[in-house]
Amino acid sequence: MHIRDIEDSVIATLAAFLEKKPATIKTRLLRKGGEMPVDSFDMLKIQLQLEETFGIDFPYDERTEEACRSVKSMALLIRELMRERDTELTKA
């Protein structure tokens, strides 16, 4: 999956959670420098939705903490976790 598609999915998830249009979220992100427009408690709820959407599990470590700072970093971690998952599936 292309990183742009993952970013769009993260934005769509944020938009649904915040009850806004994805375009509104994109504009807000551009104005704020890409920082996630939610607090840590809400981010946990969003992570759970992203885990379900992408079939991944976020680790409880610095990678996830760092990824919660922006859509781009979240998308990069999701792609990494998807690759790790796929590698494990091919080994099994």
**How many domains in all?**
1
What is the helical fraction, as a range of percent? over 70%
Strand content: under 5%
What is the CATH architecture term? Orthogonal Bundle
Shape: globular
Name the CATH superfamily classification: ACP-like
Please tally the helical runs, counting DSSP H or I stretches of 4 or more residues. Answer: 5
How many whole angstroms does the radius of gyration measure? 13 Å
**Structural class from helices and strands?**
mainly alpha
Low-confidence stretches: none
Distance between the termini: 22 Å
Run of helices and strands: HHHHH
How many strand units? 0
User: Biggest β-sheet, characterized?
Assistant: none
Oligomer: single chain
Supply the CATH class.
Mainly Alpha
Q: Report the mean per-residue pLDDT as an integer.
A: 92
Q: At the third CATH level, what is the topology name?
A: Non-ribosomal Peptide Synthetase Peptidyl Carrier Protein, Chain A
Overview of the molecule:
This protein is an all-alpha fold and 92 residues long. It has a single domain (3-91), classed as Orthogonal Bundle (Non-ribosomal Peptide Synthetase Peptidyl Carrier Protein, Chain A), CATH 1.10.1200.10. The chain has helices spanning 3-18, 22-31, 40-54, 62-67, 71-91. The chain is globular.
Short description:
This protein is mostly helical.
Secondary-structure topology with pairs:
Layout: H1 3-18, H2 22-31, H3 40-54, H4 62-67, H5 71-91
Helix pairs in contact: 1-2, 1-5
